[in-house]
Amino acid sequence: MTATAAEAATCPVTVRRRARTGGPQDGPKVLETVLGWTLVVVIAMFVTQAGLM
Fold first, then answer.
1. DSSP characters for the chain?
2. In whole angstroms, what is the distance from residue 53 CA to residue 45 CA?
3. Residue 14 pLDDT > 60, yes or no?
4. Residue 15 contacts by C-beta under 8 Å, 6 or more apart in sequence?
5. Which of 3, 23, 40, 44 suits 30 as a labelling partner, its CA being 20 to 30 A distant?
């Protein structure tokens, strides 16, 4: 048995921490969408104010 396997077998906190992989169910999708569009609008405002377009 390796040291990592022994640690995982004796420490359930480590197993729970490693089991979380993120993914599509990782928080509200609406918040991510709103923040993304806000960033797009801010960049568009900067581009027009700077006269780059």
1. --HHHHHHHH-HHHHHHHH----TTSS-HHHHHHHHHHHHHHHHHHHHHHT--
2. 11
3. no
4. 8
5. 44
pTM assigned to the model: 0.48
Rounded CA-CA distance 28/34 in Å is: 11
pLDDT of residue 29: 84
User: Is there a contact between 14 and 3 (Cβ–Cβ < 8 Å)?
Assistant: no
* Type of residue numbered 37: W
Per the model's pLDDT, the better-predicted residue between 45 and 12 turns out to be 45
